[in-house]
């Protein structure tokens, strides 16, 4: 493996596939796309198996000075590795999900998806600030086309909204990037992650980055593009949107906002908490009254991503690890839920909940998968959702019990809207004849659902596999944040202070060192 | 005065002028039948002239050795860079013309007139003089040679009322702008006692009087008209819409390059000692052009008008580089110019290649509905150009905005850059409308995409430059632009 530019290769394969799809017929394009995504997935597995846990922070680094102004620098740490794995894992599923439902301009559709995959891998692997921006922003083009060309009835409004919302957020971040690079004299991300920007500048920089990532995550009240985009996008588009694109926002926080502007992050933690608390309660309630399945899941995504932001800004290891696991879990689960909607949408061509009912009778296997993903979305122990939400909420509890209290209601509300959805779709009598006549899932749909179900259970039963690669990176991040971490509200009434702490250590000033040791357990 | 050295320096212009005169005679005797051959000869002359620039461009030239005819002209790296762009644009304008004039799109007056290539040549000579001017006299001479050729070009379809109207409007407003410019120049002459750039610069040192300030403002206003920066932009949509499309493509590229280069030279070499006096004006024009160019484009149904507003919008970003007032800004501006020229030529070529059943050119959004089904290749190329114009990575249009904004922020103009970049989102709206119409809407009717090989070559070449592969050009492009920008800041007082 030494010397093989595997990250570049992982981007080259789908890129070549995209070019080939553009010039081939429908049937050929489907197979080319499936092959390309599977090859990329295999490369991803190779990447993971060759990743040295506990090894150097940045692995598989590549660097080439191809451009003026920024460099082609790639490299991953454990966090990026996990998110890349999520992307390459979901991609073949997306292709399979569009196998029959997309009949119009198949070549271009597959090309757009493969191009999307290139950009997602690039975003997570970029080690140059501007290279990151190029990949991050370029995703707008294929997504705009996917929503606009293959979307539902109101696709044009949704595609415009998606494009302009995201663009406005991102350009402000670009200005901040220019300022940072001018100040620090480098666009190298690992260097910038260690650079101490002046505190007053951090405020502005943090806000500029926040504008971009908050739209991507999305946080309330910048979330309104998401339900529109989700509902109008084709099934696979929703999967990739919920599965990976929303994670770009969370990744942005953990890669840029937190390590680069720790003081500003602490200063604005209250803002993130307030927005997240509102999102958890408000969007859960909104999800409860949706009549459209996709919209319901879209709103539930906003609520789940709010748990991610709360965990990230908890400033402790549990919170960060929890946020990462929620991101991975939500990527799988919400993707799978959109697939579940897609499966019955392909049969009946409606997403209206009232048009279904009693599907457990005629589609038992479908009902089984749907149940599993519903439970994972609620956060039932044994599924991935539980691990992530438990860690994230445990993390935030150390920082603020009030935020933890309100965000935990999200789990109860989540159970309410998901179980209510499941009852109306799968249980009860068969009210609609055409819905009762639907056949159970096909072999292709089995192949789509089963791997995701397996991954969800794996992450739920043995999360260590996923936590291990990230542990050291999160410890490093926690050490960097320790100095700036906001005060916890758990110890509101301290007793009379001793002259010296009971376990006082000789190196009292070196806060960074002691916490680094603690973090690297 | 060493005439041999001077003539050697202006060899490309000599070549072009001589070829132009010969071709004029050919046109007089050969008539319109020879038009195609004349166009080929003119393009070849431009190519050779461009080739002559290569050594100077590559090694970089500045200093006293670049002064010709007693400092009337200054053929430094900056001039060479601008000239190269101008010649390339002029070649493109010649390549796309014959097919247009021979089609039904040209109206009742079929066939290219033999004067067209000759006028393009003379315009190119005029622009060459503009960008290498080192004296207000040579500046005006070049400007008028270019403008007079351009007025005739706009009206070259004599029996087409829109073309005639465009020519007349261009002439009247252009003459007004020239008048303003001349008035500013005379004021500067009066207050500084010279017309040479160095003399005016020397006269403008220290506290600037009101009269001289008026001179600066009048000169800048006249130049702003030529580059169609807001608030002197009103003629652009009308002229762009009325002029024949190949001529519009020419107007959107070569004269823009020349006028921007000229403006840069004037503000840096003449007013370089008085940055405070002009920087605010340029900043205002930049922001106003970005915002009004974008807002004006939103309501447009006519594609040529839309591209006219788009060019106003782009001029705003170019002026952003100028407003930074340092070498980085000037270099960014030149990089932007290069990419802008590629995107504009590409967009206009794509428009020229689209014709309806009756052979008439497509001019409105309604015409290009569903183009991705009927003409996928052209639709994808247009998609690339539109996203690139909107500045979306990974297309090269992003890089042009990237360098300009980087220069702006590095110079400390953070608020200015932030407003400009936020305004660029408004512009994205109509560029993605283009894509929406072509890709999301149902096809409108029959499209005959039959075009000359020359069109396809230009379209492919510009699309390739604008595509992500174009980033591989950026190191050498930046190198050339840096050399050119540096030569602009060598003050030889």
* Low-pLDDT residue spans of chain A: 513-521
Order of helices and strands of chain B: HHHEEHHHHHHHHHHHHHHHHH
- Which stretches of chain B of 5+ consecutive residues score pLDDT under 50? none
- Report the major sheet of chain B: 2 strands, antiparallel
Strand and helix order of chain A: HHEEHHHHHHHHHHHHHHHHHHHHH
Q: What topology, given as strand order, has the largest sheet of chain A? A: 1-2
> In terms of quaternary structure, what is this?
heterodimer
The average pLDDT value of chain A, as a whole number, equals: 89
Q: What is the strand content of chain A? A: under 5%
Estimated radius of gyration of chain A: 23 Å
N/C terminus separation of chain B = 19 Å
Show the largest interface.
A-B, 35 and 36 residues
Task: Give the mean pLDDT of chain B.
Answer: 89
Helical segment count of chain A: 23
Q: How are the strands ordered across the major sheet of chain B?
A: 1-2
> First CA to last CA of chain A: what distance?
29 Å
Q: Kindly name the structural category of chain A.
A: mainly alpha
Tell me the strand percentage band of chain B.
Answer: under 5%
Number of strands of chain A: 2
- State the share of residues found in helices of chain A, binned by percent: over 70%
What does this protein structure show overall?
The complex is a heterodimer of chains A (521) and B (493). Chain A has helices at 6-22, 26-50, 78-97, 106-125, 129-138, 140-150, 155-184, 189-194, 199-216, 225-232, 235-260, 262-267, 269-288, 293-312, 317-348, 359-362, 364-378, 384-399, 401-426, 433-436, 443-461, 464-482, 511-519, and strands spanning 59-64, 72-76. Chain A is mainly α and 521 residues long. In chain A, strands 1-2 form a two-stranded antiparallel ribbon. The radius of gyration of chain A is 23 Å and the shape is globular. Residues 513-521 of chain A have low confidence and may be disordered. Chain B has 493 residues and is mostly helical. Chain B has 20 helices and two strands. In chain B, strand 1 (67-68) and strand 2 (73-74) form a beta hairpin. Chain B is globular. Chain B has a two-stranded antiparallel sheet. Helices cover 74% and strands 1% of the residues of chain B. Classes of the chains: A mainly alpha (521), B mainly alpha (493). Chains A and B meet through helix 5, helix 6 and helix 7 of A and helix 17, helix 18 and helix 20 of B.
């Amino acid at each position: 493996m030494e010397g093989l530019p595997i990250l570049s290769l992982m981007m080259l394969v789908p890129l070549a596939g995209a070019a080939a799809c553009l010039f081939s017929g429908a049937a050929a394009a489907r197979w080319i796309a499936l092959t390309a995504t599977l090859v990329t997935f295999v490369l991803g597995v190779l990447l993971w198996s060759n990743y040295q846990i506990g090894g150097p922070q940045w692995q598989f680094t590549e660097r080439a000075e191809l451009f003026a102004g920024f460099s082609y620098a790639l490299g991953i740490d454990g966090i990026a590795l996990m998110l890349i794995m999520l992307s390459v894992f979901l991609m073949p599923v997306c292709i399979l999900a569009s196998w029959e439902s997309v009949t119009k301009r198949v070549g271009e559709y597959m090309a757009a998806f493969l191009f999307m995959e290139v950009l997602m891998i690039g975003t997570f692997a970029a080690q140059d600030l501007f290279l990151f921006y190029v990949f991050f922003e370029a995703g707008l083009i294929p997504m705009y086309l996917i929503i606009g060309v293959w979307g539902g009835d109101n696709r044009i409004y949704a595609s415009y909204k998606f494009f302009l919302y995201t663009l406005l957020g991102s350009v402000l971040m670009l200005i901040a990037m220019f300022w940072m690079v001018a100040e620090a004299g480098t666009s190298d991300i690992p260097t910038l992650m260690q650079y101490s920007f002046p505190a007053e500048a951090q405020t502005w920089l943090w806000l500029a980055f926040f504008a971009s990532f908050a739209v991507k995550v999305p946080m309330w009240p910048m979330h309104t593009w998401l339900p529109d985009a989700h509902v109008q996008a084709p099934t696979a588009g929703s999967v990739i949107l919920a599965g990976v694109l929303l994670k770009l926002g969370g990744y942005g926080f953990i890669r840029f906002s937190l390590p680069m502007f720790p003081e500003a992050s602490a200063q604005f933690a209250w803002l993130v908490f307030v927005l997240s608390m509102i999102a958890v309660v408000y969007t859960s309630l909104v999800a409860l009254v949706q009549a459209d399945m996709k919209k319901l899941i879209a709103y539930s995504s906003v609520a789940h991503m709010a748990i991610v932001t709360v965990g990230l800004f908890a400033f402790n290891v549990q919170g960060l690890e929890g946020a990462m696991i929620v991101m991975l879990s939500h990527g799988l689960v919400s993707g799978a839920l959109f697939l579940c909607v897609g499966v019955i949408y392909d049969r009946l061509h409606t997403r209206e909940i009232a048009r279904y009912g009693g599907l457990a009778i005629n589609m038992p296997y479908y009902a089984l998968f749907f149940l599993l993903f519903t439970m994972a979305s609620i956060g039932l122990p044994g599924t991935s959702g539980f691990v992530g939400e438990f860690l994230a909420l445990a993390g935030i509890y150390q920082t603020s019990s009030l935020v933890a209290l309100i965000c935990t209601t999200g789990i109860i509300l989540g159970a309410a809207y998901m179980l209510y959805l499941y009852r109306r779709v799968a249980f009860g009598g068969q009210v609609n004849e055409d819905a009762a006549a639907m056949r159970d899932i096909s072999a292709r749909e089995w192949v789509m659902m089963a791997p995701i179900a397996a991954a969800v259970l794996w992450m739920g039963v043995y999360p260590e596999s996923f936590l291990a690669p990230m542990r050291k990176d999160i410890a490093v991040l926690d050490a960097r944040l320790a100095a700036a971490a906001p005060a916890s509200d758990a110890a509101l009434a301290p007793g009379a202070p001793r002259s010296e702490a009971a376990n006082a250590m000789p190196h009292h000033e070196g806060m960074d060192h002691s916490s680094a040791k603690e973090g690297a357990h | 005065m060493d005439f041999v050295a001077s003539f050697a320096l202006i060899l490309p212009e000599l070549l072009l002028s001589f070829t132009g005169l010969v071709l004029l005679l050919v046109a007089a005797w050969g008539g319109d039948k020879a038009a195609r051959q004349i166009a080929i000869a003119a393009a070849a002359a431009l190519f050779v002239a461009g080739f002559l620039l290569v050594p100077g461009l590559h090694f970089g030239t500045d200093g006293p050795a670049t002064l010709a005819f007693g400092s009337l002209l200054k053929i430094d790296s900056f001039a060479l860079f601008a000239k190269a762009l101008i010649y390339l644009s002029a070649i493109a304008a010649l390549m796309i013309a014959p097919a247009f004039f021979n089609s039904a799109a040209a109206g009742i007056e079929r066939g290219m007139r033999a004067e067209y290539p000759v006028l393009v040549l003379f315009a190119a000579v005029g622009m060459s003089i503009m960008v290498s001017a080192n004296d207000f006299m040579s500046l005006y001479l070049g400007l008028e040679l270019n403008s007079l050729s351009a007025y005739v070009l706009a009206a070259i379809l004599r029996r087409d009322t829109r073309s005639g109207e465009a020519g007349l409007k261009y002439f009247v407003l252009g003459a007004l702008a020239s008048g303003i410019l001349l008035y500013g120049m005379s004021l500067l002459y009066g207050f500084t006692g010279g017309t040479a750039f160095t003399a005016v610069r020397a006269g403008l040192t220290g506290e600037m009087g009101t009269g001289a300030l008026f001179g600066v403002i009048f000169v800048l206003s006249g130049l702003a008209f030529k580059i169609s920066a807001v608030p002197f932009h009103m003629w652009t949509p009308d002229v762009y819409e009325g002029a024949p499309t190949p001529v519009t493509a020419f107007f959107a590229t070569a004269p823009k390059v020349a006028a921007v280069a000229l403006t840069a030279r004037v503000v840096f070499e003449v007013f370089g000692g008085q940055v405070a006096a002009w920087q605010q004006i340029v900043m205002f024009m930049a922001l106003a052009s970005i915002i009004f160019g974008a807002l004006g484009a939103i309501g447009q149904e006519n594609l040529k008008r839309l591209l006219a507003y788009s060019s106003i919008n782009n001029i705003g970003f170019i002026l952003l580089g100028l407003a930074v007032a340092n070498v980085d800004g000037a270099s960014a501006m030149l990089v932007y110019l290069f990419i802008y020229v590629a995107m504009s030529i590409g967009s206009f070529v794509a428009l020229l290649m689209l014709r309806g059943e009756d052979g008439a050119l497509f001019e409105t959004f309604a015409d290009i509905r569903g183009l991705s089904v009927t003409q996928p290749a052209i639709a994808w190329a247009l998609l690339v150009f539109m996203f690139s114009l909107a500045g979306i990575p990974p297309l090269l249009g992003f890089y042009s905005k990237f360098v300009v904004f980087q220069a702006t922020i590095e110079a400390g103009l953070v608020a200015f850059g932030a407003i400009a970049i936020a305004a660029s989102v408004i512009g994205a709206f109509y560029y993605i409308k283009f894509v929406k119409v072509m890709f999301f809407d149902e096809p409108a009717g029959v499209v005959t995409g039959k075009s000359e090989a020359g069109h396809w070559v230009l379209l492919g070449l510009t699309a390739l430059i604008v595509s992500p592969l174009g980033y591989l050009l950026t190191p050498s492009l930046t190198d050339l632009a840096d050399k050119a920008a540096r030569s602009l800041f060598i003050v030889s007082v």
